[in-house]
Amino acid sequence: MVMVFDGKKFVEDKEKFLQQEFKKLVKKGDVLKLVSILVGQNQNSRLYISLKEKIAIRLGIVFEKREFPEDVNVRELIDFIKSKNNDFGVKGIMVQLPLPAAFDNEIVTILREIDSQKDVDCLTPENLGLLMMGRPWVLPATVRGIWEILGKAGINRKTIIGKNVCILGRSDIVGKPLANLLINLGATVTVCHRQTGDLVKKTKAADILISATGQPDLIRGEMVKKEAVVIDVGSPRGDVNFRSVASKASFITPVPGGVGPVTVVSLLENFLDLALQRAMG
């Protein structure tokens, strides 16, 4: 019988632990501030920031939101990031992606300005490079969340070795870094995208199938290997036809209530890790 991952319960347990750890830091006199930067009026980004803000406040973190118009000058954005790099109380900085299309040629210029030791989303070239080399300080929040969810399916550093993994989607914040992580852990990874041919052959060969395309009902039961582990990262409706795939899988994440809430709490776990590293010097 398929195991359906309960993201709500998982996050509740994580929050209890994080609350205790943040209280310890505050008692030592640490200021814990997380800065969120939004450019433009993307409503999905606003919603995601709101979810992060609610949990951060519950955990005792000072959450600073800064919004810039779509036509903001890149220099103004960079100057703001640099000011937060130099603010000792700020332990984490995140630029909400995607940025407006006008910034496509400037995104690396902007993200590289974030202090890598405050980069809670693993967006800087330095931190992504360390991940690729197998020596990450921090993982992208969704990637960290997926790895922790896989643990609930019985996948760990030993059992991942030799597993066939199929990832659908090649974004810079999920598909590519997730593939790097799993390759470094010993999995055999296939990354599929819109130009991929014979998709069904690739998905049916996967012991672990992870879809992050945002295309509803892309994955159906006939595309899934029996007893596969299936992780649905699609937003907002999910990539996986839940009913047909659940009849084949051994483990599956629902949408909503699966990867989404875990991603938010994973970002705050990154924030804790970076705050502790900074406290230790």
UniProtKB/TrEMBL annotation:
The record's listing under Pfam families reads: THF_DHG_CYH, THF_DHG_CYH_C
Q: What UniProt keywords apply to this chain's record, in alphabetical order?
A: Amino-acid biosynthesis, Histidine biosynthesis, Hydrolase, Methionine biosynthesis, Multifunctional enzyme, NADP, One-carbon metabolism, Oxidoreductase, Purine biosynthesis
Q: What is its EC number?
A: 1.5.1.5, 3.5.4.9
GO CC entries? cytosol
Q: Which reaction does it catalyse?
A: (6R)-5,10-methylene-5,6,7,8-tetrahydrofolate + NADP(+) = (6R)-5,10-methenyltetrahydrofolate + NADPH; (6R)-5,10-methenyltetrahydrofolate + H2O = (6R)-10-formyltetrahydrofolate + H(+)
UniProt: NADP(+) binding residues: G169, R170, S171
Annotated Tetrahydrofolate dehydrogenase/cyclohydrolase catalytic domain ranges read 6-121
User: Which GO terms fall under biological process for this protein?
Assistant: L-histidine biosynthetic process; methionine biosynthetic process; purine nucleotide biosynthetic process; tetrahydrofolate interconversion
Q: Pathway, per UniProt?
A: One-carbon metabolism; tetrahydrofolate interconversion
Single GO term (MF): methylenetetrahydrofolate dehydrogenase (NADP+) activity
Cross-referenced InterPro entries: Aminoacid_DH-like_N_sf (IPR046346), NAD(P)-bd_dom_sf (IPR036291), THF_DH/CycHdrlase (IPR000672), THF_DH/CycHdrlase_cat_dom (IPR020630), THF_DH/CycHdrlase_NAD-bd_dom (IPR020631)
Cite the Tetrahydrofolate dehydrogenase/cyclohydrolase NAD(P)-binding domain residue spans from the record: 140-277
The record's subunit annotation is: Homodimer.
Q: Which HAMAP family match?
A: THF_DHG_CYH
Concerning its family, UniProt says: Belongs to the tetrahydrofolate dehydrogenase/cyclohydrolase family.
Q: Which PANTHER family does UniProt cross-reference here? A: C-1-TETRAHYDROFOLATE SYNTHASE, CYTOPLASMIC, C-1-TETRAHYDROFOLATE SYNTHASE, CYTOPLASMIC-RELATED
Explain the purpose of this protein: Catalyzes the oxidation of 5,10-methylenetetrahydrofolate to 5,10-methenyltetrahydrofolate and then the hydrolysis of 5,10-methenyltetrahydrofolate to 10-formyltetrahydrofolate.
Its recorded name reads: Bifunctional protein FolD
